[in-house]
Design brief:
It contains 10 helices and 14 strands. Strand 12 and strand 13 form a beta hairpin. Helix 3 crosses helix 4 and helix 4 packs across helix 5. It is globular. By secondary structure, it is of the alpha/beta class. The structure holds adenosine-5'-triphosphate and magnesium ion.
């Protein structure tokens, strides 16, 4: 078995732009990254960071300017590796006069599945992505979120060892996002390697063994999300059993009343919970929930970018 499920070595991609194609845009700049078998890697970065370009290079839909990409120990584009991977493109486009079931049977056929096997696989996968009841509807009648689910089912049709998902949560409502998170978790539990891109930090929380963070074509950090230095910007505290006056006496601002005598309090960084909670308990105020507010992925990028642009004097 290959040591790495996915390996990027100094991967670089310039897109020629302009009428004379003389001004290349560097979409990816010497990116090196190893993904172990069984990892769920969140490939995160803001719009234009180079996520889709990386996935296209891995799928050999575009070719690198320099560097190389490997999947399961074989060069990107290798037929044997392709048989063992699944791919959800960023903007999946399917023949919309097919039904979801027909589409999956068709893709199963491309992977050499016998028709009966392909039909069984299609039905299991459509159930798995929550489209079992809609399997006989034509795709042109599907919503964006439903098409996204079909795309995920399509990526799993060959029972892949490595699954590449480009923005799998895009176009999904909160229930769809939760379902997709559950699905990715189950792919992990089955021992598959998952490489998914997102520009939303919370998509990666509680799901990824590791994240890689891209900014402007460069890999700026990798590690466990918990180990990356996301700044805590405060806490949101929901309490009950007190009144606005009691809370005001503690000098807590931004107190809003929720339903049923609950109050939402924004704790700033200079009033951490371990200071405030004992005072609340003295006033017989109960804590319903306490949630840290981390900086967003965007804030994190901005900080990294600012740091790079202004090196320490
Ligand atoms: N075919 C192309 N021709 C020219 N430039 C391109 C092409 N595809 C991408 N780019 C440029 O390469 C950079 C990276 O784009 P890419 O689509 O990989 O980013 P992304 O991280 O997937 O962004 P998003 O979150 O918006 O999907 C961008 O500056 C983009 O404008
Ligand atoms: Mg993209």
């Amino acid at each position: 078995m290959a040591r790495y499920a996915i390996r990027l070595e100094e991967l670089t991609k310039d897109y020629p732009i302009g009428f004379w194609r003389s001004r290349p845009v560097r979409a990816l700049d010497h990116v090196s990254l190893d993904v172990e078998p069984g990892e769920v890697l969140g490939y995160l970065g803001p719009n234009g960071a180079g996520k889709t370009t990386t996935l296209k290079l891995l799928m050999q839909l575009v070719y690198p300017t320099s560097g190389r990409a490997e999947i399961l120990g074989r060069p990107a584009g290798d037929v044997e590796a392709k048989r063992r991977l699944g791919y959800l493109p960023e903007l999946p486009y399917f023949y919309d006069n097919l039904t979801a079931e027909e589409l999956l049977v068709y893709f199963g056929g491309l992977f050499g599945l016998a028709p009966a096997v392909a039909r069984t696989r299609a039905s299991i996968l459509l159930d798995r992505v929550g489209l079992g009841a809609e399997r006989r509807r034509r795709l042109r009648h599907y919503s964006k979120g439903m098409l996204q689910r079909v795309g995920i089912a399509q990526a799993l049709v060959n029972d892949p060892e490595v699954v590449f998902l480009d923005e799998p949560m895009s176009g999904l409502d909160p229930v769809g996002r939760r379902d997709t998170r559950e699905l990715i978790r189950s792919l992990r539990d089955e021992g598959r390697t998952v490489f998914f891109s997102s520009h939303i930090l919370s998509d990666a929380e509680a799901l990824c063994t590791r994240v890689a963070i891209m900014v402007q074509g460069r890999l700026v950090s990798t590690g466990r999300l918990a180990d990356l230095a996301f700044e805590v910007q405060g806490w949101e505290l929901v309490v009950s059993g007190g009144d606005g006056g009691a809370l005001a006496s503690l000098g807590l601002d931004a107190v809003t009343t929720a339903v049923d005598g609950r109050y939402v309090v924004e704790l700033p960084v200079d009033r951490p919970p371990d200071q405030v909670l004992p005072e609340l308990s003295r006033l017989h105020v109960q804590v319903v929930s306490l949630t840290p507010r981390h900086e967003s992925l965007e804030d994190y990028f901005m900080r990294l970018v600012a740091r790079r642009q202004a090196p320490a004097a």
